[in-house]
Amino acid sequence: MAVKIAPSILSADFSDLKNEVKKLEESGADLVHIDVMDGNFVENITIGAPVIKALRKHTNLFFDVHLMILNPERHIEKFVKSGADNITVHAETTYHLDALINKIKSFGKKASVAINPATPVCLIENVLGMVDMVLVMTVNPGYGGQKFIDYTLEKIRNLSELRERKGYRFEIEVDGGINEQTVVECVKAGASVIIAGSYVFDSVDVKEAIKKLKKSVEKLNE
């Protein structure tokens, strides 16, 4: 399975998001990861549907929208209309995860589920046959630039084994503490969609940073 790089605009220059996203498109990014935070589920507050809608006009990149918000059921239609291609919801934020996934899919969008580092895989096992991706948070969500949590690798391996055993088709996505070393460990464990924020945007050359991540895992596919 080819590895996709999804830079997170959480680490981008928020005063110039249009050009930051254009830069990603020109630099070989496969997706753009958009973190939506409400100041409740996580401490930070970022952007909402109006900003995503404004950005949608300026790029054809796949919009991977990650809702770190309470009561996501109330807001799905707004993000669908904003131009999201995939909507990820946290298992920890809803009592009716299957219904929420079905709601997203009813709009013709891809639907994914995220789990925090301390959340066990068993919490989402019953919906694995429904989702397009599972996002394993490899840091505690809310802020960029955190250190990778090593025990999350076991969860990636568990998901990969479940996928193979059950014949599921979901991709495994990881978010947090990604660099040239941790990306290799994640891909070895079974991940194929790699979110990288500060590693990409804090680099001198965004294109070169994306290329380095891809090059780091090329040997694993040989």
TrEMBL record:
Cited Pfam families: Ribul_P_3_epim (PF00834)
Residues reported in the UniProt entry to bind substrate: 8, 66, 142-145, 175-177, 197-198
Cofactor note: Binds 1 divalent metal cation per subunit.
Top-tier EC class: isomerase
CDD domains linked to this entry: RPE
NCBIfam families: PRK05581.1-4 (NF004076), rpe (TIGR01163)
Entry's EC annotation: 5.1.3.1
Record key words, sorted: Carbohydrate metabolism, Isomerase, Metal-binding
Pathway: Carbohydrate degradation
Source species: Caldicellulosiruptor morganii
Residues annotated to bind a divalent metal cation: 33, 35, 66, 175
Active site location: 35 (proton acceptor), 175 (proton donor)
A GO molecular-function annotation: D-ribulose-phosphate 3-epimerase activity
Family note: Belongs to the ribulose-phosphate 3-epimerase family.
Protein name: Ribulose-phosphate 3-epimerase
Functional description taken from the UniProt entry: Catalyzes the reversible epimerization of D-ribulose 5-phosphate to D-xylulose 5-phosphate.
Catalytic reaction annotation: D-ribulose 5-phosphate = D-xylulose 5-phosphate
UniProt cofactor(s): Fe(2+); Zn(2+); Co(2+); a divalent metal cation
